[in-house]
């Protein structure tokens, strides 16, 4: 079995392809490269944040199912810092691991700004884009808006 020790290198982008069969080197439609994010091209800059804050709108309808799943995702990824009520008193704040977690009531939030921060992070908060699908992120946005309304 000489090929086990000295493998034959194939050029998948070569004219002959692999084993004489041509290879399509283009990615399959709808796939996302590792570490990439689908359909979100607003940059992680202060200007990008302002664009998202002013222009980005939630494509999901506000429904009980969306709010229920938004709450479930919020409880997993957000409540530990932001608190169950969005008041900034999560368990990590209570244990003095982080200070200055904002209360949603005191923030000028829009659906676009919330989504942008979930995607890219802001200040001490890192990105949560890889933990949630785009639909789940928008559901969390709906739930955060509900929490903010309840804090008034």
UniProtKB/TrEMBL annotation:
Residue span(s) of domain Cytochrome c: 65-148
One Gene Ontology molecular-function label: electron transfer activity
Write down the InterPro entries for this protein, in alphabetical order.
Cyt_c-like_dom (IPR009056), Cyt_c-like_dom_sf (IPR036909)
The answer on whether this UniProt entry bears the keyword Heme reads yes
- What SUPFAM superfamilies does the database record attribute to this sequence? Cytochrome c (SSF46626)
Q: Which UniProt keywords apply?
A: Heme, Iron, Metal-binding
According to UniProt, the name of this protein is Cytochrome C
Organism of derivation: Tenacibaculum todarodis
